[in-house]
Write a structure and sequence with these properties.
It is a single chain. The chain has 707 residues and is of the alpha+beta class. Among the domains are: 114 residues, Serine Threonine Protein Phosphatase 5, Tetratricopeptide repeat (Alpha Horseshoe); 97 residues, no CATH class; 71 residues, no CATH class. It is built from 18 helices and 46 strands. The chain has a four-stranded antiparallel beta sheet with strand order 4-5-6-7, with no helix packed on it. A four-stranded antiparallel beta sheet has the order 8-9-10-11, with no helix packed on it. A four-stranded antiparallel beta sheet has the order 12-13-14-15, with no helix packed on it. A hairpin with a 2-residue loop joins strand 17 and strand 18. It is elongated, with a radius of gyration of 38 Å.
Length: 707
């Protein structure tokens, strides 16, 4: 009977405690709840947690509130169904306990966010496990830790970060920065001995090739044959030794002559590329041109003597002493003696890069070296260009990277891949793009819809969810990925367009020129800086600004071209002219179109006819031609009423304007076509070097001017 009375009294006290709590009588509620913690711990500790978790009473203390709700949760877990039903009538159940924990977590989270300190996030993560805010706390904690590591910018700082937070999203950038810091700290003075020691101590570092490249640079500051020879003797295993040999050979043979080749071979009899040298020796003074005879192709020399018999389906011009040719539907290459270098057995052959050329056979690809040796087996679906000894390749629908021997260097685990530029390559997985280094380590995580790549610059444009931004080579966001359009960095600034407004940011993402200019499709296509100037649109008119945002040309033109040769093509009232940066007029507004200067001359067009001006604005050729190419080596290919020919920069006819086409071959020859037949004309003499059989016959029969 006494036990029943005790339980009844206890239950009544618990109900009174909750009544007091609902009435905001916190003193009474706290007293009653405290007395009940032994007999009804789940409900009592819950009530105490509510009291200490509310900021409207003197008992407010989040740590106490957290401790109380933890004890409530523990006690609730030991209750049987009857016990849980009894306190459920008072509003205490699993859901309310969890809600109280979330409430405490939210209050604590606000305090932590306001302080924004790493140690506070750490404590929150430890204390509030189970809270929905823990994931955010982990992310922000990691961000702060990475910011501190970046501020210190030492190998030890990045190593400590990675040890503490190996799963952080910043770990990708931290690993790259760790390797960079190890490299940087190992070579503080950039001396030869430091680079040598780095290679010895860190043979697996992705920066080993950088160190090896620096050894070549430091040991050959003047690029003399003696320096290259010393480098080869000192570093026989350096991958730049072939480059050193070829550079030394090139310094001897800037003028490719038998005498220079002989002198080099006498002084360096151990030259490893003797076959290349012997080929050069044989053809040192020979210049060959493709010619066609009876529908077959061969090569003639500068005296029109047939040097390689016309027996090929096609023949390309010579490059690096080889010419691609085709025979019976197959492709390969020959040297200047007409001997096959790359066997003529492939379905296709691409141009050489880093001494390697991709070949294709029966739908699969491989690669050959300059000697025609198949070093990469024809076993891949794709083989790309080599860069620093690596080429992207595809096998069974996946992409990876191989070396010049066809060996897998980076596993075939990507859905797409681009070739390396400056030691970095863009790769894709599951429709998202990232970036890897030459070791295959992820530098930029797979988080973007598109990554442009680090081509000739340390930055890359990216796109995500329809917005663009810029990242650096460590994957750090330089320009936030939140803009409608972002241009590439030119002259240190990048175009940024949002909601029809354009401005420019610097390499740190800072606004150098605010978005005060208008933007349209032309801005996106032509708004990047060029030679220190950018075209800007304001009030429907175009002008130009410099890299400081200073106005160079006021926004008063209908269109503006690019600065070249000191003058700028501009359009006003429907006509084009040229002005200087000072706005001084150089050419009156009288042309229907005007182009930037090329090689000191600018093309102009009036009434559908083309002419030419020089850099002073003088009209050296009046508009008179139906078409006109840019000046090359002082001459231009132009077209008139009767056909195409060549004139000099003063408009004097060198090759009559009577041909179907004219193509400049070099400084000596131009190839012309007439009636579907070809011929070579000497530019200096104006006469024919060689004519294909049937050239000009039909035109002569029809009474046209005979060439």
């Amino acid at each position: 009977m006494l036990a029943v009375l005790t339980m009844t009294a206890s239950a009544g006290r618990l109900e009174k405690a909750f009544e007091a709590l609902h009435a905001f009588d916190y003193f009474k509620a706290k007293e009653l709840f405290t007395k009940e913690t032994a007999k009804n711990p789940a409900a009592a500790w819950y009530g105490l947690s509510v009291i200490t978790g509310r900021a409207d009473n003197p008992f407010y203390q989040l740590d106490s509130s957290l401790a109380a709700i933890r004890r409530s949760m523990q006690a609730y877990g030991t209750l049987d169904e009857r016990g849980r039903m009894r306190i459920a009538k008072l509003g205490v159940d699993q859901a309310s306990i969890q809600a109280q924990l979330e409430h405490i977590g939210a209050s604590a989270w606000k305090q932590v966010v306001d302080r924004d300190r790493l140690q506070d996030y750490d404590r929150f993560i430890a204390d509030y496990h189970g809270s929905s805010y823990v994931e955010q706390a982990v992310d922000r904690r990691n961000e702060l830790a990475f910011e501190e590591a970046r501020r210190l910018n030492t190998a030890e700082a990045f190593k400590t970060f990675l040890q503490a937070y190996p799963d952080a999203k910043e770990a990708f950038g931290a690993r790259s920065r760790l390797q960079e810091a190890i490299f940087r700290e190992a070579v503080p003075d950039g001396t030869i001995s430091q680079y040598e020691q780095f290679i010895k101590d860190h043979p697996d570092s992705p920066h080993v090739r950088d160190a090896q490249d620096m050894l070549l640079k430091l040991n050959t500051p003047n690029g003399t044959p003696e320096e290259f020879a010393a480098f080869i003797r000192r570093y026989p295993d350096n991958p730049n030794v072939p480059e050193a040999w070829r550079s030394m050979y090139a310094s001897y043979t800037k003028v490719l002559s038998v005498e220079n080749i002989t002198r080099f071979l006498k002084e360096h009899p151990d030259y490893p590329f003797i076959n290349e040298l012997m080929t050069d020796y044989k053809v040192a003074s020979m210049v060959l041109y493709p010619f066609r005879q009876g529908g077959r192709w061969g090569f003639i020399d500068q005296a029109a003597v047939e040097r390689i018999k016309a027996e090929f389906d096609y023949a390309e011009p010579f490059h690096f002493n080889q010419a691609q040719v085709g025979l019976a539907g197959r492709s390969g290459s020959v040297n200047k003696l007409g001997k096959p270098v790359v066997p003529i057995i492939y379905d296709d052959m691409l141009d050489y890069r880093e001494g390697m050329a991709t070949v294709e056979l029966n739908g699969l690809q491989g690669a050959v070296d300059r000697n025609g040796k198949l070093t990469v087996p024809v076993a891949f679906e794709e083989v790309g260009d080599f860069d620093h000894g690596l080429a992207v390749a595809a096998k069974q629908g996946k992409y990876g990277y191989i070396n010049p021997n066809g060996e897998e260097m980076i596993p075939f685990g990507f859905d797409g891949a681009m070739r390396f530029h400056n030691g970095l390559a863009v790769v894709t997985k599951e429709n998202l793009s990232g970036v890897i280094d030459v070791k295959g380590a992820v530098v930029v995580p797979f988080a973007y819809d598109w990554v442009e790549g680090f081509i000739d610059r340390p930055f890359s444009r990216v796109r995500k969810d329809g917005h663009m931004g810029i990242i650096d080579r460590f994957g750090e966001v330089v320009v936030a990925v939140e803009h409608d359009h972002v241009g590439t960095f030119c002259n240190g600034l990048a175009l940024v367009v949002d909601k029809g407004k354009a401005g420019y940011v610097g390499p740190t993402g800072n606004w150098v020129i605010p978005q005060r200019y208008d933007a349209n499709a032309l801005t996106i296509n032509m708004g990047d800086f060029h030679l220190g100037l950018a075209r800007v649109l304001s009030g429907g008119k175009w002008g130009m600004v410099d890299t400081l945002g200073n106005r160079v040309l006021p926004a008063q033109y209908e269109d503006v071209g690019l600065l070249s040769g000191g003058i700028i093509p501009v359009k006003r009232k429907g006509k084009w002219g040229y002005v200087k940066r000072s706005m001084a007029s150089v050419v009156d507004f009288k042309y229907d179109q005007a182009w930037p200067l090329q090689n000191g001359y600018g093309r102009v067009e009036a009434g559908g006819l083309f002419g030419l001006i020089d850099s002073t604005g003088k009209e050296v050729i009046k508009p008179q031609f139906k078409s006109m190419a840019d000046v090359v080596n002082g001459v231009l290919v132009v077209s008139g009423e009767k056909g195409t020919g060549v004139v000099d920069h003063a408009g004097r006819v060198i090759v009559p304007l009577i041909y179907e086409s004219a193509t400049l071959v070099d400084q000596v020859l131009v190839k012309v076509m007439l009636d579907g037949h070809m011929a070579y004309l000497r530019l200096d003499r104006g006469d024919f070097l060689w004519k294909e059989e049937g050239f000009g016959v039909r035109s002569a029969q029809q009474g046209d001017a005979s060439p």
